[in-house]
Design a protein that fits this description.
The complex is a heterodimer. Chain A has 18 helices and 14 strands. By secondary structure, chain A is α/β, with parallel strands linked by helices. Chain A has a 5-stranded parallel sheet with strand order 12-11-10-13-14, sandwiched between helices. In chain A, helix 10 links the parallel strand 8 (241-245) and strand 9. Chain A is globular. The model of chain A has no long low-confidence stretch (mean pLDDT 98). By secondary structure, chain B is an alpha/beta fold. Chain B has 3 domains: 4-54 and 441-519, Nitrogenase molybdenum iron protein domain (Rossmann fold, 3-Layer(aba) Sandwich), CATH 3.40.50.1980; 58-184, Rossmann fold (3-Layer(aba) Sandwich); 217-343 and 386-429, Rossmann fold. Chain B has helices at residues 7-16, 20-27, 58-67, 81-86, 118-123, 126-140, 151-156, 160-171, 189-203, 229-240, 254-258, 271-285, 297-311, 314-342, 355-365, 380-384, 396-399, 419-429, 455-465, 474-482, 501-517; strands at 30-32, 73-78, 112-113, 144-149, 175-179, 217-223, 243-249, 265-268, 289-291, 346-350, 369-374, 448-450, 469-472, 487-489. Chain B has a 6-stranded mixed sheet, with helices on both faces. Chain B is globular and about 95 Å long. The relative contact order of chain B is 0.13. Classes of the chains: A alpha/beta, B alpha/beta. At the A-B interface, strand 1, helix 1, helix 2, strand 3 and helix 3 of A face helix 3, helix 4, strand 3, helix 5 and helix 6 of B.
């Protein structure tokens, strides 16, 4: 047994986290920054932070993840990291020639109180930022929130520091803003396809498609062709509306756009599953006055057809989920809608809304469900719940494989990080096509299990 | 493609793009090798901010590398969640717990953290740490708990050592000890190794009562059982009749560390990460150390012979020769099979603090040439040999790492070998004690040796020399491969291995042969990108058959 010390008896813990269902802010900020074209993310802290974050993202995407670090030493930690950051900016612009550098802080630089705004200003004043180049920054203290918070903070900085306030009398541009949230490059590509199919002009950021799924060409493109263009992000201040997908990852940026540029916003769930996608398309249609085209309605029909066809394999199946709140809320609703029972849900990411929203999704349909978020809402707790009463399916990041193996439970990988399988960067889970992909994965593992466990006489050819 | 003769110019070209100050500093870390007269290389100095380095931090070296592979110590990270999360199962330290109750503990699959929050940073985290230690003890009942400090811990002044002392006393049967391995300590993972060595030495080694029994007792130091390397070596030692007391720290347990003082010889694999323990054990317990290398079949044979020479027993020498002969027949067969595909090809190695050296032996066995190499966190002695240690200037970053003063243990000190015998073995058998010759003497004249390679330097090296395989880590892997050059990860072995010992050499031969002869690289680039003409069969008189829309 790989997790042999995990027993069903849940002991109250008030200080110890075991097997976390979250990581820290900076990795989210780094991922978000990679969604700007020509951007070099920069970690203002010890080297280890940058090394860990680059490694985590690289293992998840199997792609180069370029980023700089301020390489704090003991001296910088005592006297402040200003010198390190100014030097780093100069070196990175000179050696790696990015269009933009997106700096995020770390627990170290936050603890000593480095002021990123002031240091960046100083670098500009001292001529360390070449003409026409840009630096943005986001505070991402690791001791607050989670990796999702860091992603949200960097997106908020893109909005507040790049988006330009339109002139008083200027008419808004004929476009909307999409803040896609922390999703895969495949999902960002899919959202763009949906917008194109709807025929709605849009600006989306961040956009990691064609960055974190870059083609093999025989050359290392330090700045791949994808990513939101700075000019587009600038123009987002003049858009007619903002659609923030995912309250945790995207709402802070939408709020910044409202505060700075008075762009009204709608916060929606991530369009994962049927109903959340319905709401996204309906809202897009309502706000822009664009009808949902038949082709998307047909996609919806295909997804629902698959669900109704295969309903008997899904009905009543107990599922344990872990990951990030935006994904978990939409996914739980979807699973409940297809007659599955999301019984155990944990997310290390804090936020009071989580419990209320989950209650409203599951309270009536899966009254036996247990869910928790924030500190100590970890995989150890979830595994203990599973030991108490088992589940038919696990859905979450790679770390679930230890539970899956120990307790012999079918496992669908979803979320961050996925270190041990590929596909997530290429096949979306958002939209109706994403729903089909999720269904295919769920049905695949459940039916494989049935094939493995059925007695020979009831081994089925047709299922 | 450049030749070695062009390296001087390549070095100048590389430095050319850097701002003047950076160029001045990097110049000293980029050296054209001369094995005859080893040049000085700048190493173990601060990385220049913004340069894009391979390096990690002190915490990674301490918790991740040295203590990570010990299965029955609860490694509790004191800090915000990230550090614990990223070091959770991401190194491939394999372990084989026992099956009986009492020997079956394995906490390596778990991640333990105090998950410090804002108020802990503002008001201090000691209280939470104490509680977390208590909760870990109550739930898991480990015999030892290590507390690992992350960056904010040192800055806010949490005293992890005081907490450890207090909790050891309170818990009674659990040894709790702390590590001040904040990420900003030192200049790389290396500082963390040293910190880990110190604390292991202070709090664990020598605390065991049980003595390892056996005729030829050794410890293996600096072997972390990546991909099962230590398992291979355990098998070899067993075959030879050599008793392995403790491995630091692959497939290890707390008790093995505690009683490791009773071995008669310390054999060091990774000199960088563990030489401190070897030095201190010699002073305190009288155990001599020798450098070994079990990467490469020839090196493995040589290392076994060194051990046999040390013990001097004819029975052991004979047995070792038998084992070598037996193993070598499989090795030769495997080598003969792959040589046509590997011979004459080239490699570059930029990794770790010993691997960039050790793996050159395997490439030599494959008939492959090492064009350039360097360490991520090595020191000058790892490049130039330990003889330069007295000349290494101790800078502020190194001075901050504690140097323990050690003296002979009144009860447990036992000089294993007389000075005369030692001198005789060196003289007659070429057995060097307490020595490591470093990487440079082995590399060809004119090859580039570069410490703490930057990403930019890496790309320039590859463009200039087009090696057939590049060895580094996960952060470099896909950038290099996008350039059309296969990258072999020498931290994780690309999830393959083991590569140590004779069986490991065979695995490595096969993996490298596949890498340098793979057909997949031939798929890079579409035919129309490569300018291959597409014959327009359906097009009459130059007009397209269909009209393109939009």
């Amino acid at each position: 047994m790989l997790l042999k010390h995990t027993t069903a008896e849940v002991a109250e813990r008030s200080a110890l986290t075991v097997n976390p269902a979250k990581t820290c802010q900076p990795v989210g900020a780094m991922y978000a920054a990679l969604g700007i074209h020509g951007c070099l993310p920069h970690s203002h802290g010890s080297q280890g932070c940058c090394a860990y974050h680059r490694s985590a993202l690289t293992r998840h995407y199997k792609e180069p993840v370029m980023a700089g670090t301020s390489s704090f030493t003991e001296g910088a930690s005592v006297f402040g990291g200003q010198g390190n950051l100014v030097q780093a900016l100069n070196n990175m612009f000179t050696i790696y020639n990015p269009e933009i550098i997106a700096v995020h802080s770390t627990c170290l630089s936050e603890t000593i109180g480095d002021d990123l705004a002031q240091i960046v200003r100083k670098s500009i004043d001292e001529g360390k930022v070449p003409e026409g180049k840009t630096v943005i920054y986001a505070p991402t203290p690791s001791f607050i929130g989670s990796h999702v918070t860091g992603f949200a903070n960097m997106c908020a900085s893109m909005a507040s520091q790049l988006a330009e306030k339109p002139a008083e009398e200027a008419a808004p541009l004929d476009q909307v803003n999409i803040l896609p949230g922390w999703v895969e490059p495949s999902d960002m590509r899919e959202i763009k396809r949906i917008m194109k199919t709807m025929g709605i002009p849009y600006v989306m950021y961040p956009d990691t498609s064609d960055v974190m799924d870059a083609p093999m060409t025989g050359h290392h493109e330090f700045y791949p062709k994808g990513g939101a263009k700075i000019a587009d992000i600038k123009s987002s201040g003049s858009s007619k509306a903002t659609f923030a997908l995912g309250a945790w990852a995207s709402e802070p940026a939408a709020k910044e756009l409202w505060k700075k540029c008075r762009v009204p916003y709608e916060t929606l769930d991530l369009p994962i599953g049927i109903k959340a996608t319905d709401r996204f398309l309906a809202k897009l249609s309502e706000v822009t006055g664009t009808p949902v085209p038949d082709s998307l309605t047909a996609e919806r029909g295909r997804a629902v057809d698959m669900i109704t066809d295969m309903q008997s394999y899904l009905y009543g199946k107990r599922v344990a989920l872990w990951g990030d709140p935006d994904q978990l809320l939409a996914l739980s609703e979807f699973l409940a809608d297809i007659d599955m029972k999301p019984v155990y849900i944990v997310s290390g990411t804090p936020g009071k809304k989580f419990m209320n929203k989950m209650e409203s999704i599951l309270g009536d349909v899966v009254p036996e469900s247990k869910f928790k978020n924030g500190e100590r809402a970890d995989l150890f707790l979830m595994h203990q719940w599973i030991k108490e009463q088992g589940v038919d399916l696990l859905m979450g990041n790679t770390y679930g494989k230890y539970i899956a193996r120990d307790d012999d439970i079918p496992f669908v990988r979803m979320g961050f990080p996925i270190y041990d399988r590929v596909g997530h960067s290429y096949f979306p889970t958002v939209g109706y096509m994403g729903a089909i992909r999720i269904l295919e994965k769920i049905l695949g593992v459940l039916m494989d299990r049935q094939d493995r466990d059925s007695p020979e006489e009831s081994f089925e050819l047709v299922m | 493609m450049s030749s070695l003769a062009d390296n001087e110019k390549l070095k100048d070209d590389i430095l050319d793009i850097y701002p003047a100050k950076v160029a001045r500093k990097r110049k000293k870390s980029i050296v054209l090798n001369d094995p005859g007269e080893i040049p000085e290389i700048q190493a173990n100095v601060r990385t220049i901010p913004g340069i894009i380095t391979q390096r990690g931090c002190s915490y990674a070296g301490c918790k991740g590398v040295v203590l990570g592979p010990t299965r029955d110590i609860i490694n509790l990270t004191h800090g915000p969640i990230g550090c614990g999360f990223y070091s959770w199962l991401t190194r491939r330290n394999q372990t084989r717990p026992g099956t009986e109750a009492g020997s079956d503990e394995n906490f390596m699959t778990y991640c333990f953290s105090t998950d410090m929050q804002d108020p802990n940073i503002v008001f201090g985290g000691e209280k939470k740490l104490k509680k977390a230690v208590k909760e870990a003890y109550d739930t898991f009942h480990p015999k030892a708990i290590g507390i690992f400090s992350t960056c904010p811990v040192g800055l806010i002044g949490d005293d992890v050592h005081a907490v450890a002392r207090e909790m050891t006393e309170e818990l009674g049967d659990c040894n709790v000890f702390g590590f001040s391995c904040e990420g900003y300590k030192g200049v790389s993972q290396s500082a963390g190794h040293h910190i880990a060595n110190n604390q292991l030495f202070k709090h664990v080694i020598g605390k065991g009562e049980e003595k390892t029994e056996g005729e030829f007792k050794i410890n293996l130091l600096g072997e972390y059982n990546i991909g099962g390397d230590a398992f291979v070596l355990e098998d070899i030692f067993e075959k030879c009749g050599i008793t392995l007391g403790a491995t630091f720290s692959g497939n290890s347990t707390y008790d093995q560390f505690a009683s490791s003082y009773s071995a008669d010889l310390n054999c060091i694999m990774c000199h960088r990460s563990i030489n401190y323990v070897a030095e201190m054990m010699e002073e305190k317990y009288g155990i001599p150390w020798i450098k070994v290398n079990f990467i490469g079949a020839e090196s493995s044979a040589k290392s076994l012979r060194k051990i046999a020479d040390y013990f001097g027993s004819q029975k052991l020498k004979d047995r070792v020769e038998e084992v070598i002969a037996e193993e070598m027949s499989a090795v030769s067969a495997a080598r003969d099979e792959v040589l046509p595909r590997t011979e004459g090809k080239s490699a570059m190695l930029f990794v770790g603090g010993s691997r960039a050296h050790h793996y050159q032996d395997l490439f030599t066995e494959l008939g492959m040439k090492t064009l350039a190499a360097g360490y991520e966190f090595g020191h000058r002695d790892d490049y130039e040999g330990r003889r330069v240690i007295p000349n290494i200037k101790i800078d502020a970053d190194s001075r901050n790492i504690e140097e323990l003063s050690v003296s002979a243990d009144p009860d447990k000190y036992n000089q294993r070998i007389t000075d005369e015998e030692r001198a005789r073995l060196t003289e007659e058998r070429g057995l060097e004690f307490s020595d490591y010759e470093g990487l440079m003497p082995q590399m060809e004249e004119g090859t580039l040796v570069i410490d703490d390679l930057s990403h930019y330097e890496m790309e320039e090296l590859i463009k200039a020399h087009k090696p057939d395989v590049f060895c580094a880590g996960i952060k470099e892997k896909y950038a290099v491969q996008k350039m059309g050059v296969p990258l072999k990860q020498l931290h994780s072995y690309d999830y393959g291995g083991p590569y140590a010992g004779f069986a490991g050499a065979v695995n490595f031969y096969k993996d490298i042969a596949l890498m340098v002869s793979s057909r997949v690289w031939g798929l890079v680039g579409a035919p129309w990108e490569k300018g291959e003409s597409l014959s327009p069969v359906y097009v009459e008189s130059g007009a397209p058959a269909v009209t393109m829309t939009e």
